[in-house]
Design a protein that fits this description.
Strand order of the largest sheet: 5-2-1-6-7-8
Number of strands: 8
CATH topology: Rossmann fold
Radius of gyration: 16 Å
Shape: globular
Length: 208
């Protein structure tokens, strides 16, 4: 399939801490890397999102005495799931998976950099007000369609897809180039939310 020039591939959080052996490993998160590399060769426009937290980030359970990972608390911007410390800036866990091969990627969007606000989405932080600048970049480049792959399907990929739709883009998630955490039914809920929002869910066989 020929990918239209006004489409981009957004590769989300394929980092060591989200793959087996990492602090917040997504099951089989490493298995999608060869497929992502193959898909990327179809696109002239490739953008990479990278979780990039300062130490002591508000989303870390370790920042809240008496709390443990996967507890849910209220922060000033709303409900927040607490996570193990992960993707701390300039640590090996924050680095991209060694097998990821995207030499023609033109932009890395680092998110979660504000110590007080989490950011699942590559477009909009969890306060739902602070933008990353990605939507503006894509529009300046004349891109109207965003294909998404990466980790985790039910968190960062889902929120990126929903925000892409809200920003006016066609949003397409390549499901077999993603993996999910599936925390308390989060995968089924994510799929429903994306479908309701008009996000297309396709297998990679529709592209390759």
């Amino acid at each position: 399939m020929q990918i239209a020039p006004h489409a981009a591939l957004l590769v989300i959080d394929v980092q060591n801490d989200f793959t087996p052996g990492g602090q917040l490993a997504v099951p089989e998160g490493d298995l999608i890397v060869p497929l992502i590399n193959r898909l990327s060769s179809l696109f002239k426009q490739v953008i990479v999102a990278q979780d990039w937290h300062p130490a002591g980030h508000a989303s870390f359970a370790s920042s809240h005495p008496g709390r443990k990972p996967y507890d849910v608390i209220q922060l000033p911007y709303g409900e927040q799931t607490l996570w193990p410390d992960h993707c701390v800036q300039a640590t090996p866990g924050a680095e991209f998976h060694a097998g990821l091969d995207l030499p023609h990627a033109q932009l890395i969007i680092r998110k979660g950099c504000n110590p007080d606000i989490d950011s699942y989405s590559a477009f909009l932080e969890a306060d739902r007000a602070t933008t990353t600048g990605l939507a503006g970049y894509l529009k300046e480049r004349g891109i109207d369609t965003v294909y998404m792959v990466g980790l985790a399907l039910d968190f960062c990929v889902m929120f990126s897809a929903l925000d892409a739709r809200a920003a006016g883009f066609n949003a397409i998630v390549v499901t077999d180039a993603c993996r999910a955490i599936d925390l308390n039914g989060s995968l089924a809920a994510a799929i429903e939310r994306m479908q309701v929002a008009g996000v297309q869910l396709i297998p990679s066989s529709e592209l390759i």
